[in-house]
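Hi all, posting the design record for the shared folder.

TITLE: backbone redesign
STEP: 1 of 1
STRUCTURE INPUT:
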């Protein structure tokens, strides 16, 4: 699978895809990360965790932008109160919550000390998880790829 195909699986909007693929100054990996973070289509989270209810707000924004409901208001409130020590623990809870709607919260690889999260359809999960995007010999192989915590 080409990197270009990965862009189509992460971003559904044709306009988003065109902007990313037209940015020839950066690698495709960097273009996706820069675009995702700058447009808030990716959620930026420090490794230490959320400042407040950032994941819940990200889900609400995604629901609004795509005219769908991934979780009920009550479920989102419970998710906002969920206590965790490490971000992957909360990501697992999110994935349990949105799995019935056939969506997942994925992590995009980064070379920094933060998480870049995005929501995608689970039908693309196997393709997304196979892609090694970050080319960096100092980063463990698993962290160079998109990840899904469950």
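Okay, here is what came back for every position:
SEQUENCE:
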């Amino acid at each position: 699978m080409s990197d270009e195909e990965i862009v189509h699986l992460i971003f559904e909007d044709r306009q988003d895809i065109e902007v990313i693929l037209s940015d020839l100054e950066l690698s495709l990996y960097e273009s996706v990360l820069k675009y995702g973070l700058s447009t808030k289509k990716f959620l930026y989270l420090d490794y230490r965790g959320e400042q407040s209810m950032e994941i819940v707000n990200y889900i609400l924004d995604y629901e609004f932008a795509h005219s769908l409901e991934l979780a009920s208001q009550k479920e989102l409130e419970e998710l906002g109160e969920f206590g965790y020590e490490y971000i992957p623990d909360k990501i697992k809870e999110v994935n349990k919550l949105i799995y019935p709607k056939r969506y997942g919260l994925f992590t995009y690889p980064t070379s920094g000390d933060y998480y870049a999260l995005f929501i995608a359809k689970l039908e693309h999960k196997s393709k997304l998880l196979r892609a090694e995007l970050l080319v960096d010999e100092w980063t463990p192989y698993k962290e160079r790829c998109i990840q899904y915590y469950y």
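COMMENT: The mean pLDDT is 90.
Let me know if anyone wants the other runs.
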